[in-house]
Write a structure and sequence with these properties.
Number of strands: 4
Largest sheet: 2 strands, antiparallel
Strand content: under 5%
Strand order of the largest sheet: 1-2
Low-confidence stretches: none
Oligomer: single chain
Length: 655
């Protein structure tokens, strides 16, 4: 089964080629959707068989399948090779599993679109690049997938390039795609610098060889400036791809793309690439305590920053977008304190409930004729009962309510943050968790409860088709029970000696990093853990109660009074702390002015154009003089010829 890993990557590529080249001629949407879905479904089945082989094998060792030599120049050599281990297979399952559900969902959501075939070609391209990213056995192939995902996301976000994103804030979809593309390029520059440093000092870009070299010299490399700069550059790349401060501005505007794109980017794939890169290089980061501190601080601040903005957003998808940024902050906080398993576990649970939230949002928007302003909704559960039930399950999961998936992964992260950073880090994440519970139930109450605030003459809500509902039901099941794969020790010790199955599964991946970090092999249960779990539950329930108090009836007048009472705070949060305006003022506008006034008007127009135009004028003047000699009178030509002969003969006689 392991020898077929190349098919996991190849199938989406074939699907992209078929739909991209022949989709317009095929025309039949069912056939196009089937081709696109099979291109992801078959890899999912193969990944499941490989996963089964890993968990049933005794002392499984990572397997590398080399297809061919990609680049060979001097002592630099890179292969097209894929690495099969616990981490890559887990991410492959998430990508292909959630990706398959999104493909099926898209068949209903995008029905009748003029570029239906193109959409599925782009989806397959996205999956192909993401699989290269997580399965690669070297940095360069990962970077190929990293950049390819950026390209595919640009194509998908700007899919309706000639359409305005009619949310609360209007933005052209093409502009949103460019914003995402450019913001990611800033981070990718850091990734490139890190690769240059790694190859220059270690002579390899292959993960296995690099880890062997680093682990062998761990004592001499720990806390050195070399490791610091390598890891900090990698982290800059992760900040761009995973939308952490200060490169998080692109992700909310990415909502301009079709909703299945939002689910694909925000749930299980692109935004988790940064988490994967740090997890893949956990040994490298474990040798850089200063970098890990920065990772933890950025993650904690981002978690609270995005959560507070989500409190007042009125665009359905933007609320979910900021919740994604916040949850990614939780993941980075976990990685920064060395809780690599907890961070990856939250990637998995987040894929379940966030994928469900976005697809549920898409079902509502589809049934409401593209309306996205939650202030104009209300009582949608009456018209869309299945969507309502599944959406509420995901809302309970992200809020951290016990037994739902988000509860288990959040608890692990918050305890590890407390254990490594103390009270402050834990308390900030607790505030973020409170905000999450509040704004998610604010969203749920304004959409599904209260009075009907939409125009009943123009809008007739209706349940989504089965192709859209089936993925919702599957994700609802995973959102409800997926967390049982990683039960924290304080809660699972009474059931099993090793209740956290995800931790046991990923243990070989992070073994070397745990040795460097001196992480104890056996988890000691502290009484305070139970207290923290209880506090987290109480805080989540309090957030739900407050949201219910203010928003369940859907009375916009009472909501307006709250906003008026806290007008300055509301304006600050509604405008995202004016971060876009700050960027325009201190970065974008100065760059535009510099480009326009100096580079364009002086360097380009006066110097470059002046030189080229002056050369052309000089040539024209010379030609005008020479042109006078071309009189058309043959006698003149004969005289000039004779004079020329005389000059040449005279010259020859003289020399």
């Amino acid at each position: 089964m392991f020898e077929y890993v190349y098919l996991i990557v190849l199938m989406p590529f074939i699907g992209m080629l078929i739909n991209g080249l022949f989709g317009k001629k095929i025309k039949n949407e069912s056939i196009i959707a089937t081709i696109g879905s099979l291109a992801v479904g078959i890899p999912f089945v193969i990944a499941c068989s490989i996963f089964y082989g890993i968990i049933t094998a005794e002392n499984f060792e990572p397997i590398t399948q080399t297809l061919w030599t990609w680049i060979a120049a001097g002592n630099f050599s890179v292969n097209i090779a894929y690495q099969i281990d616990q981490l890559s297979v887990l991410f492959t399952l998430i990508i292909t599993g959630i990706g398959l559900l999104i493909h099926i969902y898209s068949a209903g959501y995008m029905k009748g679109d003029r570029s239906f075939y193109r959409f599925f070609a782009y989806l397959n391209l996205f999956i192909f690049m993401m699989l290269n990213l997580v399965l690669a056995d070297n940095f360069l192939l990962t970077f190929l997938g990293w950049e390819g995902v950026g390209l595919a996301s640009y194509l998908l976000i700007g899919f309706w390039y000639d359409k305005k994103f009619e949310g609360v804030n209007i933005i052209w979809t093409g502009d949103a795609g460019k914003k995402a593309f450019i913001a990611n390029r800033v981070g990718d520059f850091g990734f490139l610098i890190a690769m240059f440093l790694i190859f220059a000092h270690f002579g390899t870009l292959q993960y296995g060889e690099l880890n062997e070299t680093i682990f062998a010299g761990a004592n001499s490399l720990q806390d050195t400036s070399l490791i610091f700069w390598i890891t900090i550059c990698l982290f800059i790349g992760c900040c761009g791809k995973s939308a952490q401060l200060p490169l998080s501005v692109w992700l909310p505007d990415a909502m301009a793309g079709p909703t299945p794109v939002s689910a694909l980017i925000h749930a299980a794939t692109m935004v988790t690439a940064g988490i994967f890169l740090i997890a893949r290089n956990s040994l490298l980061f474990s040798l850089a305590p200063d970098t890990m501190t920065i990772v933890a601080i950025v993650g904690i601040i981002t978690a609270l920053w995005a959560a507070t903005i989500g409190l007042v957003q009125n665009d359905f998808k933007k609320v979910l977008a900021y919740s994604t940024v916040s949850q990614l902050g939780f993941m980075f906080a976990a990685l920064g304190v060395g809780a690599f398993t907890a961070g990856v576990f939250h990637v998995m649970t987040h894929a379940f409930f966030k994928g469900l939230l976005f697809l549920g949002a898409g079902a509502v928007i589809h049934g409401m004729h593209d309306l996205q302003d939650i202030k104009q909704m209300g009582n949608i559960r009456k018209y869309m009962p299945t969507t309502y039930k599944t959406f509420m399950i995901a809302t309970l999961a992200i809020a951290g309510i016990p037994l739902f998936s988000g509860f288990f992964s959040k608890d692990e992260i918050m305890w590890n943050v407390y254990a490594q950073t103390g009270f402050i880090g834990w308390f900030v994440l607790l505030l973020a968790a409170f905000c999450t519970a509040f704004y998610m139930f604010r969203l749920a109450y304004l959409v599904f409860y209260g009075e009907e605030r939409f125009n009943k003459h123009d809008i007739h809500p209706h349940e989504a088709p089965k192709t859209m509902l089936i993925p919702l039901i599957i994700l609802a099941f995973l959102s409800a029970f997926g967390g049982l794969l990683g039960i924290p020790y304080p809660l699972g010790a009474f059931i099993s000696e090793h209740p956290n199955l995800i931790e046991s599964y990923l243990a070989p991946i992070f073994a070397q990093a745990n040795i460097v970090l001196n992480t104890p092999m056996n988890h000691e249960i502290h009484a305070i853990e139970y207290l923290f779990i209880a506090i987290a539950i109480i805080i989540a329930v309090l957030g739900i109660i407050l949201a219910r108090k203010y928003y369940k009836k859907g009375n916009m007048q009472s909501t307006a009074k709250i906003h008026i009472k806290h007008a300055k705070k509301h304006k600050l949060l509604l405008n995202k702390y004016f971060i876009d305006e700050i960027y325009y003022k201190i970065i974008i506008n100065p760059l535009l002015n510099f480009s326009n006034n100096l580079l364009h008007k002086i360097l380009d127009v006066r110097l470059i154009d002046g030189f080229i135009n002056g050369l052309a004028s000089f040539t024209n003047d010379i030609a005008a003089v020479i042109r006078k000699m071309q009189s058309g009178v043959i006698h003149n030509y004969a005289i000039i010829m004779v004079l020329g002969i005389i000059v040449i003969i005279s010259y020859l006689l003289i020399i």
